[in-house]
Amino acid sequence: MSQMIFVNLPVADLARSKAFYEAIGFTNEPKFTDETAAGMMLSEAIHVMLLTHDKWKGFTSKAIPDAKKSAQMMLCLSRESREAVDAIIADVAEAGGNTDCDPPQDYGFMYGRSFEDPDGHNWEVMWMDPVAVEKGPEAFMEAAAE
Description:
2,3-Dihydroxybiphenyl 1,2-Dioxygenase, domain 1, 2 domains, 5-stranded mixed sheet, 9 strands
C-alpha cells in the first residue's frame, strides 16, 4: 500500500466546509463521513478530514486556534500548469473562499497563489516548471534571485 496523507482540519460548520471542498474539486468519501466528520479525497494519496470541533477535541487537548487570526501551518497543493493554479483559485472564489490572501508568487519557474477555506485554513496552490525541478534547489535559488 502506498503512503497517503490525511490532513485533519477542525471546522465550525461541517456541511458548509464539505460543500466548499466539493466545489473546488475534492470528492466526499462516504465511508469516512458522518455527522461529526467528512472524508474528502483530492487524489488516491491526498485526503482531508473535516472534523467538527467536538470530534477534533477527541484527538487532542490543545486549543483550536482561530485560523482567521493566526496561522499554524500552510498547506500546499501542486498543479500541472499555471492555468490549473488559476482555475482552482477561480473555483475557490466562486465557492466563497478568500483568494490571494497572500500575494501571488511568480518566479518564472514557479507560480503560486493562495486561498483560505471558510474556517480560515491557509492553502497555497503552486506550479513548478519540470525542467527547473530536474535542476534542483540551486537552480531555484538562482532563478528567485534574478
